[in-house]
Structures are given as structure tokens and as C-alpha cells.
Amino acid sequence: MLQFLIAVDVTVVNIALPSIGAEFGVDARGLTWVVVGYAVTGGGLLMLGGRLSDVLGRRRMLLVGTSVFGAASLLAGLTQTFPLLVVARLLQGAGEALALPAAMAMIVLAFPEGPRRTRALSVWAAVASSGLVLGFVLSGVITELFGWRWIFLVAVPFTAYVVGAALVLVPADPPGERKELDLPGAALLTAAPLLFVLGVVDAPIALIGAVLAAGAFVVVERKAANPLVPMSFFHNRTRVLANIATALLSAALSTSFLLFTFQLQQRAGLTPFEAGVALLPLAVALVAAVTFVPRVAGRWGARTCAVIGIASTAAGMIAIAAGAQLGAGAVETIPAMVLIAAGMGFGLVGLQQAAVTGVTDDDAGVASGVQRAADQLGGSSGVTLYIGIGFAPALVGVDSFAVSCALALVGLAAAALIAWRID
């Protein structure tokens, strides 16, 4: 239920972005804060969330994180200013970061490495995909009938249900050893991508701060008594390559979702409801992909699935750019949607499987946190960079879709080369 709820929240905001921008007078570049603010905070704190779940208890962190997520959803739905909406999205990301690694670690540890774990992770992905489907539809229906605020308010009763179910169904955490937490590392890991977003969207000088924060994070992690991610964790070559490839693939996938939204509403002239319905082929194809992947993952292996997914995403980005050039409507975008869906289904499931190779009870939360952080930070950084450059005022007269897609293709080429080296 938690993964489903978070997946809904990822897509439910996309169709509503033009309506949010119209109410607050914010352009496409500024609206990226609504998407990436959530993803950056969530991704930056995910490794802390993973560490906290290993140290303080997975049930405890599931309850705390879900409660924060619900409270932030209420704030987002009631806010009257755009800056406060961004703050609420940051808090939603923090709630996800505390809850999701605990939930994923429970699943990973419940199934032994091999076919059973692959099936379990595929079910996890299928649940997320179902949430994406509902998110597309809900976004259009709710935005058109009730207004964009209700896309956040509907999450409140669901979070209350998750908290109640966890209190009843999840066993209490066993006593654990108290360890010092790496709070400076968590702060730096969150600050670096936030400064990067600020630098690309509003203040280029902030890019210097992003570089300094990233460098300081590496130094802190090497010296910390209990780092967010022990350096030994990255001695596993498969994990490192899988997480890098995940970040690059997610960058392109997140960018494609925003481009679809703008193309359908701003170029094809669809209403929010019509745009939500028009995106259903993408959502249905995604469910089909993640349902099919478990049947072949055992024979093909994580590497092959990942490369197929990356190649399919690249083909989808090319189709998006071509459609924008030719003035494609909703029907003409379906091939691009199917390719993107296949890319997400094959690519992320394969890379997720590789990213949790060899985990134990001691580091399952960290492994889950790193994998989710790579996904979210990669996605948010990609949206910021690809959309920020493609839609920059200095490029007036140049097709923004083509520029954004070209940048994504460069990242996907690097992802394919990296994924191919996975053992």
C-alpha cells in the first residue's frame, strides 16, 4: 500500500502542473521545483532512512515516515503560496525517505536471493506501476473536477490507513544496538542536489555550492564512525554499476513524463482530464512490461534486461522529439509511450535486481536506500538539467523538446555502456 501510494504521488502531480502554474503564475522551469523538490529531498535522505531502518527498526521508521508524508500532503493541499507548496513537497520527500527503505528491506529480507526474490521485487514494481496508472487518471479527473489541491488531499486518508495497518500487522522491532547517526552526511547529500536544482533553474552561483557540498560529503563519509553508506558497500562492482545506470536511466524517464505532459496539454491542447486519459497507454504498457519481466529475468539476467530497457527508452525519447517536430497529437504519441513504458519496466527492474546483490540483514536497508536514492536523485537531476537547459530563455526559437531529448540520449548512451559491464 505504501509503495502504491508513493507511486500515485509521483504521477498524480504531472498532469496538474499547468493548472498549478496558471494559479501561481509560474513557468515550466519554475514548476520543475514541484517535481524535483520532492524527488531531491526524498533521494537525498533515502540513505539516512535506510540506515535508520537498520539501526532504529524498520517498523518504527515505516510509521514515522508515513506520518510525515501524510502531514505534508495535507499542507500541500491547503497552501496558498507557491513557495509553501514547494516546502510541502520537500517534506513529502522526507517522509518517503524514512518509510520506503524500511518497507523495501522487509521484502528483500523475506525472500532468499534468486527466483523468489526476483518475483517479489517484480511484484513490488507491479504495485508501483499500478500506482502510476491510477496517478495518471486521478490527476486528470481530480484536477478538472475538483481542482489541483485535491491531488494532495486524497493521500491523507490513505496514509492514515497505512499507519493503522502497520500498527496491527507488522511485528514490533527487536531491541537494536544504538549507533551514532551520520547527520552531517545526510545534510550534505540533500544539500548538494538542492543547490544543483537552484543553480540550474534560478541562480547559477549555487552550482559552486553543489560541487562543494558533494565533495564535502565524500570527505565526511570517509571519516564518519557510522557513515550513511560504508565505503565497503561500494566494493561490490555490480552494485556500483547498477546504481549509476539507474540514475542515468531515471533521468531520461522522468524527463519523458514531463515532456508528455507539456506536449499533450500545451501543444495538443488537451484538458487535464483528456491528458490523463491520453497517458493511459503508457501506464497500461508499463504494467504489462513489469508483469512480463519476471518470466524472462531468470533466463536473460539483470544485465540484458537493463540494456533492453535503456535502448527502449532511447527509442522513446527519439519518438518524443520527432512527434514534437511534426505536431503529433495524443494518438501519435502512443508509440513513444509504449517504448518509454517498456524501458522503465525492463530497465529499472533489471537494475534493481542487480543493486541488491549479496545483501545481508546488516545492510539491506542501506542497499535499498542507495538504490532508491539513485533512482530519485537521478530522475530529479535529469529533469532539472534536461528541462532546465531545453526550456532556457536563451534558447528561444530552438525546439525545446529536441534539446531536452538530445541531452537525455547522451545520458542513456552512457547508461547502456555502464549496464553492459554488470556481471
The Rg value, from CA coordinates, equals: 20 Å
Envelope shape: globular
Unreliable runs: none
Distance between the termini: 33 Å
Mean pLDDT: 82
Helical/strand content category = mainly alpha
Describe, in plain words, how this protein is organized in 3D.
The chain is mainly α. It is globular and about 60 Å long. α1 packs across α6 (115-145), α9 packs parallel to α15 (364-390) and α11 (237-267) packs parallel to α15 (364-390). The two termini are 33 Å apart. It is built from 16 helices and no strands. The mean pLDDT is 82.
What's the helix and strand layout?
Elements: H1 2-12, H2 17-24, H3 28-56, H4 58-78, H5 82-110, H6 115-145, H7 150-153, H8 155-169, H9 183-201, H10 206-223, H11 237-267, H12 272-278, H13 280-326, H14 334-355, H15 364-390, H16 400-420
Helix pairs in contact: 1-6, 2-3, 3-4, 3-5, 3-9, 3-15, 4-5, 4-8, 5-6, 5-15, 6-12, 6-13, 6-14, 9-10, 9-15, 11-13, 11-14, 11-15, 11-16, 13-14, 13-16, 15-16
Summarize the structure.
80% of the residues lie in helices and 0% in strands. The protein is mainly alpha-helical and 423 residues long.
Question: What are the main properties of this structure?
Answer:
423 residues; globular; mainly alpha
